[in-house]
Design goal:
Blueprint (H helix, E strand, L loop, with lengths): L3 H13 L3 E4 L1 H6 L1 E8 L3 E7 L8 E6 L4 E5 L4 E3 L4 E5 L15 E11 L6 E7 L17 E5 L2 E6 L4 H6 L4 E6 L5 E5 L4
Antiparallel strand pairs: 1-5, 2-3, 3-4, 4-5, 6-7, 7-13, 8-9, 8-12, 10-11, 10-12
Length: 191
């Protein structure tokens, strides 16, 4: 019984990282269908909103075999192909005129740990208002997470996910190409 508070805290923390919720028919019937993206024997993928003019629609995946429905929490999701949804993490806040934002985004990251067991927490502090001194090389365009070290960029991961970003916990300048966004790839057939 003494482990119950820790178990509850762990359960809450795990559930906070879910990118989607299973919804019931009552909730589903309140949504407005804005577009049908995929309709095959196994799944139906819809763009839905609170109303027909919702400016921030969400993706909904319906498993036709089980009739389960999954609503993605973030409106910044997109269908990458017929089986993968990209669910973007919150954007780094930046000034669009800043020199650190060219074909991607530079972000200085400092990893930290606070507290003591069992209330220990890890985190990251970000600064997106600068680039490494004397940087004058071409920037990568290939998807991935790059770490600036010894006056050059080194690829840490070909996957631009928050999980991969946190994996090595190295303080320093990172470059994230293209949109400068981290995202998770979620297979709609494995929900």
């Amino acid at each position: 019984m003494r482990n119950l508070p820790i178990y509850l805290l762990f359960s809450i923390l795990i559930s906070c990282h879910e990118k989607y919720d299973e919804i019931d028919n009552q909730y589903f019937n309140k949504l407005s269908i804005l577009d049908t993206l995929i309709d095959n024997k196994k799944v139906l993928v819809l763009k839905v909103g609170d109303s027909i003019s919702d400016n921030y629609p969400h993706l909904l995946v319906k498993d036709k075999e089980s009739d389960r429905k999954y609503l993605f929490k973030e409106y910044e999701c997109e269908l990458e192909n017929d089986s993968i949804i990209r669910s973007y993490s919150p954007a780094f806040v930046y000034d669009e005129n800043g020199g650190f934002r060219k074909n991607g985004i530079w972000v200085y990251t400092k990893f930290f740990t606070e507290g003591t067991f069992p209330f220990k927490s890890k985190g990251m502090k970000f600064s997106v208002d600068s680039i490494p001194q004397n940087w004058n090389q071409d920037l990568p365009k290939k998807e991935g997470i790059y770490l600036y070290k010894n006056n050059s960029l080194h690829i840490l991961s070909t996957e631009q996910s928050e999980e991969k970003f946190r994996e090595k916990e190295i303080d320093g300048f990172y470059f994230i190409p293209n949109k400068g966004r981290l995202y998770d790839k979620i297979n709609i057939y494995n929900l």
